[in-house]
Amino acid sequence: MRNKSPLAEQPLHPIGRLYQVERKARDVSEPDLRLIRQEKPAPTIETLHKWMPAWITQGNFGRRV
Length: 65
Prior knowledge:
Helix content: 55-70%
Number of helices: 4
Largest sheet: none
Order of helices and strands: HHHH
Radius of gyration: 15 Å
Distance between the termini: 12 Å
Oligomer: single chain
Number of strands: 0
């Protein structure tokens, strides 16, 4: 990445945690996968849910970061 933007990097760690949950759950049964997807990512999704409206409110939506 040429010009690293702290603003653009903020959601990368939580998104990475979501992918990590999926990698760890790769070899589980469908019912277990459903439970994992409902429980494990919840705190991360909450973090992103709080971050996104604040980011948009600051006028960053549609702006190149």
